[in-house]
Amino acid sequence: MGGIRTAGDLVLRMQLSQSMKINEAKKYVAEKLKVNPIDLSDCYIMREIREDLDLGRPMPPDNVAKGMAAKIRIAKVLGIKINSVERFLQSSGLK
Hints:
With 95 residues, the protein is mainly α.
């Protein structure tokens, strides 16, 4: 499925954080992104989705989410807690 070029990183995050099987994780991510599960592996569709939701992408241009900003948006879109995001928000006083 690939990593940040498609939705592989999002699916893997659900598998690891929620102990989901791969098909269950794909379905969950697809529902959250409002696409069909087959679209998760299409780099053109996912590029548009990542741009619209500002979830990060490979070699991003200026003024788009990178690093922690992208992780914060991913946590929000998928409705999950990411430990590094939680620690960042607590240490910065944003939470």
